[in-house]
C-alpha cells in the first residue's frame, strides 16, 4: 500500500548496485574511499616517510577499501582497468612521476602486484573457501558446479 521510489543506485552491505538490465555495481564509492584513506595517510607522513613504509601502509590501509568485495562481483575488463588506473594515480603522486614505465618498475622493485592479479587471488581464495564450506547453500552450489563441469567434459 505504499509508493516505492525509483532509484538508480542502492547500497547493500557496502556495495553500490546500479539499476541496469544485468547485475552491475558502481565502483565510484570504493575509489573515493581509497583516495580518502590514501590522502589521510599521505597527508600525515607522506613527505617524511620512507617509500617502503608508505607502500606498506597503502597496501594495508588503503587497498582493502579499493578491493572491497571484488572477489564476489562480476567485474568487466573496464572495471578492472578503472581500479588499476586509480591505484596508479596514487603511485604517480607518491613518486612524483607521470611515466607508467617508472610505475611498472616501482611495482617490480617493491613487489606490488597488479590490481588484476590481486583481484584474481582474492577470487580464488573466496571460491576455495566456498568449496570447502559446510554450509548447505554452498554445498548445493558446489554440487551444481561439479555436475556442470562433468557434463561439459
What's a concise summary of this model?
This protein has 153 residues and is mainly alpha-helical. The chain has 6 helices and 3 strands, in the order E-E-E-H-H-H-H-H-H. Helix 1 (28-45) runs antiparallel to helix 2 and helix 1 runs parallel beside helix 3 (77-95).
How would you explain this protein's 3D organization?
The structure is a single chain. This protein is mainly α and 153 residues long. It contains six helices and three strands. The protein has helices spanning 28-45, 51-66, 77-95, 100-109, 115-131, 136-152, and strands at residues 9-12, 15-18, 25-26. Strands 1-2-3 form a three-stranded antiparallel sheet. Helix 1 (28-45) packs antiparallel against helix 2 and helix 1 packs parallel to helix 3. It is globular, with a radius of gyration of 19 Å. The termini are far apart. The mean pLDDT is 88.
Amino acid at each position: 500500500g505504499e509508493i516505492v521510489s525509483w532509484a538508480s543506485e542502492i547500497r547493500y552491505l557496502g556495495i553500490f548496485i546500479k539499476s541496469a538490465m544485468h547485475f552491475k555495481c558502481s565502483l565510484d564509492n570504493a575509489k573515493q574511499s581509497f583516495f580518502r584513506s590514501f590522502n589521510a595517510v599521505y597527508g600525515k607522513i607522506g613527505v617524511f616517510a620512507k617509500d617502503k613504509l608508505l607502500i606498506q601502509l597503502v597496501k594495508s590501509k588503503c587497498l582493502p577499501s579499493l578491493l572491497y568485495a571484488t572477489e564476489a562481483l562480476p567485474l568487466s575488463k573496464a572495471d578492472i582497468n578503472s581500479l588499476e588506473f586509480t591505484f596508479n594515480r596514487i603511485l604517480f603522486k607518491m613518486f612524483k612521476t607521470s611515466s607508467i614505465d617508472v610505475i611498472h618498475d616501482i611495482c617490480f622493485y617493491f613487489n606490488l602486484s597488479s590490481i588484476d592479479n590481486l583481484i584474481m587471488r582474492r577470487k580464488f581464495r573466496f571460491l576455495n573457501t566456498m568449496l570447502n564450506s559446510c554450509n548447505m547453500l554452498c554445498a548445493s552450489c558446489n554440487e551444481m558446479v561439479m555436475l556442470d563441469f562433468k557434463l561439459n567434459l
